[in-house]
């Protein structure tokens, strides 16, 4: 009897709940924040920070917070 190789499905590991929450929040906020001048990358960064720092979870709260944080990260223009 030949031993067959074990077959495992090609699946990526499940993302953490915080990562999923941040992605959903970013996607919901993208239209409003894009009009306000924030790039998709910046919206993703802010959504991750909003969830990770436990600032809140609501879309309205995120929109207010993200507008205050602005389209550019602090120190982004700083030359070392």
Task: Give an overview in words.
- The chain is mostly helical.
- The protein has a domain at 17-69.
- Helices cover 54% and strands 0% of the residues.
- The chain is built from three helices and no strands.
- It has helices at 17-35, 40-52, 59-69.
- Helix 1 packs across helix 2 (40-52) and helix 2 (40-52) crosses helix 3.
- The N and C termini lie far apart (66 Å).
- The mean pLDDT is 83.
Which tags fit this structure?
80 residues, 54% helix
* SS content category: mainly alpha
Instruction: Determine the fraction of residues in helical runs and give it as a percent range.
Output: 40-55%
Report the principal-axis shape. Answer: globular
How is the biggest beta sheet arranged? none
What is the arithmetic mean of pLDDT?
Answer: 83
**H/E order of the elements?**
HHH
What gap, in angstroms, lies between the N and C termini? 66 Å
Number of strands: 0
| Number of helices in the DSSP assignment | 3
> Rg from C-alpha positions?
19 Å
Q: Segments where pLDDT lies below 50 for 5+ residues?
A: none
Q: How big a fraction of the residues is strand? A: under 5%
Structure in a nutshell:
The protein is 54% helix and 0% strand. With 80 residues, the protein is an all-alpha fold.
Could you outline the blueprint of secondary structure elements for this entry?
Layout: H1 17-35, H2 40-52, H3 59-69
Helix pairs in contact: 1-2, 1-3, 2-3
């Amino acid at each position: 009897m030949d031993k067959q190789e074990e077959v495992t499905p090609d699946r990526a590991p499940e993302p953490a709940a915080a990562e999923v929450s941040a992605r959903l929040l970013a996607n919901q906020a993208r239209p409003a924040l894009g009009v306000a001048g924030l790039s998709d990358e910046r919206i993703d960064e802010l959504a991750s920070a909003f969830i990770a720092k436990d600032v809140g979870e609501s879309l309205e709260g995120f929109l207010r917070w993200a507008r205050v944080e602005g389209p550019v990260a602090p120190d982004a223009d700083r030359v070392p």
